[in-house]
Write a structure and sequence with these properties.
The chain is an alpha/beta fold and about 475 residues long. About 35% of the residues lie in helices and about 15% in strands. The chain has three domains: about 1-35; about 35-305, 3-Layer(aba) Sandwich (Rossmann fold); about 315-420, no CATH class. Strands 1-3-2-4-5-8-9-10-11-12 form a ten-stranded mixed beta sheet, sandwiched between helices. The protein has a two-stranded antiparallel sheet with strand order 6-7. A hairpin with a 7-residue loop joins strand 11 (about 385-390) and strand 12. Helix 6 (about 170-185) packs across helix 7 and helix 7 packs parallel to helix 9. The relative contact order is 0.10.
Length: about 475
């Protein structure tokens, strides 16, 4: 009997090894069919380590950041041949999307101060593959309302996508600590401190705050504002590192990338390395573990209020994780979750998956809940008027507020990337105030044609990139500063 079991285990092990080898071989074949790596994929700038970040101040970080951008210009931009000067290439000087042409290069960290004594200070944390550009509308609004703003470029971002092959989430968190130190240096307590995080930045804002509950040396924020926060990601990200194993051999360097695409966006990478996916999973895993530990110990009772804006339809982060992995653990501390529903009145409704149309009904546990929920949705399947269905904390009664707006007929849902951008945004907006200010206006593109012609997917170009409810959302954020 024991011999049979041992034989069976040996055969199972052999089959697993063969299956793994087959998958790795398939991975190599698929990546080798893809485009070649460009200089912006292979050049890796030297970012500050976690320890160096914790020993640095804002002035040193800006100095090191300037050196990194100079390295990119020397090792990438200056080495492009005439053939490499593509029409839309953020690394080519003659390209309209080269950030060097712009009045402000929003890839850099920045500090904004209001006129007079600041009422408070906000730290802004952008998303993965992103840059400080993504939260600039929030930054300018906070400044206009009399607040100081610290917006940091997280390590690995804003320069070349190759930089994300050599950075980890601990560096991002150390940069968050540095930004908070600068914020409190500019505006000491007891003036309020807020953390605003988009996507991966939302995970960092939450992780920092949980750390501050355990470490009295870390300044505590008085409120968190999260936009499409990365509380959970797909299970594939957990094993993304395996997809990059062939890249250990130089001949298969392309296997270190999940996507290799033209870099036509001046403020966000299009290419995505395996390591970045793995780091996002490690961060969310550490975050969820800490949330559950603090909920069990009672420490989470000291958490400041959290205001979150999340699209029900989100292909990047897990919307259920925002509810189950964060909000259902929160104490009754004045937190609120705002969900943007799909367009229930859209003419494309017959083409929408029933799971997507009914997702908002399945996400939330039955009321009463420890937090307020607000669902931005259609008045009815026949009426595109926008209403907000509000269920206060500790209540089973839902109140309906009608907004003076309608769902745009051409939009069937928002998206992960849309929430922080108004329709007037020059790059992502559908009706930009200044089209072409940053070389092109992605939100205005309406590509039509045959499949397999474009080098990027239609999904990427047609994904909703701005938020028609941005002004209402900003009004809700302003209420937290009153």
């Amino acid at each position: 009997m024991l011999q049979r079991t041992a034989t069976w285990l040996k055969r199972a092990a052999i089959l697993l090894v063969l299956a793994a080898l087959m998958l790795l071989t398939l991975r190599v074949v698929l990546t080798e069919r893809g485009p070649d790596l460009a200089p912006w994929h292979t050049f890796v700038p030297d970012e500050l380590s976690t320890g160096q970040l914790d020993r640095s101040d804002w002035a040193r970080y800006l100095t090191e950041e300037a050196k990194i951008f100079a390295e990119v210009e020397k090792n990438v931009t200056d080495r492009l041949t005439d053939e490499g000067q593509d029409v839309y290439n953020r690394y080519a000087r003659r390209s309209p999307v080269w950030p060097g042409h712009f009045a402000t290069d929003w890839n850099h960290s920045y500090l904004l101060l209001p006129d007079g004594q600041p009422k408070g200070v906000a730290v802004l944390l952008h998303g993965l593959t992103d840059s400080p550009y993504s939260l600039r509308h929030f930054a300018l609004d906070y400044q206009q309302q009399g607040w100081a703003v610290v917006a940091i470029r997280l390590p690995g971002h804003g320069t070349v996508p190759g930089s994300l092959t050599d950075t980890d989430w601990e560096q991002w968190l150390a940069a968050t600590r540095l930004a908070v130190r600068e914020a409190r240096s500019q505006v000491p307590a007891p003036a309020p401190l807020q953390l605003i995080g988009f996507s991966n930045g939302g995970a960092l804002a939450m992780k920092y705050t949980l750390d501050a509950l355990e470490d009295a040396s870390l300044p505590r924020p008085q409120r968190l504002i999260l936009i499409s926060p990365m509380i959970g990601v797909s299970s594939y990200a957990r094993y993304a590192g395996l997809a990059g194993l062939p890249s250990l051999l130089p001949a298969f360097a392309r296997s270190a990338w999940l996507s290799i695409l033209p870099e036509f966006n001046p403020f966000k990478y299009n290419s995505f390395p395996v390591k970045a996916a793995r780091q996002s999973w490690l961060l969310t895993s550490a975050l969820q573990s800490q949330l559950h530990q603090q909920a069990s110990s009672g420490l989470l009772a000291a958490l400041p209020p959290v205001l979150t804006f999340q699209s029900v339809a989100d292909a990047t982060v897990s919307t259920p994780a925002v509810v189950r992995g964060l909000y259902n653990l929160l104490p009754n501390n004045g937190s609120e979750l705002v969900l943007f529903d799909v367009n229930q009145s859209v003419r494309l409704a017959p083409l929408m998956r029933s799971s997507a149309r009914n997702e908002s009904e399945r996400l939330l546990p039955p009321a009463p809940r420890n937090y307020t929920t607000s669902l931005v949705t259609s008045a009815s399947p026949e009426d595109s008027s926008v209403v907000v269905e509000v269920t206060p904390a500790d209540s089973t009664t839902t109140q309906t507020e009608t907004l003076n707006m309608r769902w745009p007929a051409e939009i069937y849902s928002l998206s992960h990337v849309a929430l922080p951008f108004p329709p007037q945004d020059p790059l992502y907006g559908s009706t930009p105030d200044s089209p072409g200010e940053y070389g092109l206006s992605l939100g205005m593109l309406t590509p039509r044609g045959e499949r397999s012609v474009l080098v990027v997917s239609l999904d990427m170009l047609m994904r909703q990139s701005s938020n028609p409810f941005f002004n209402w959302m900003m009004g809700r954020v302003k209420q937290t500063r009153e």
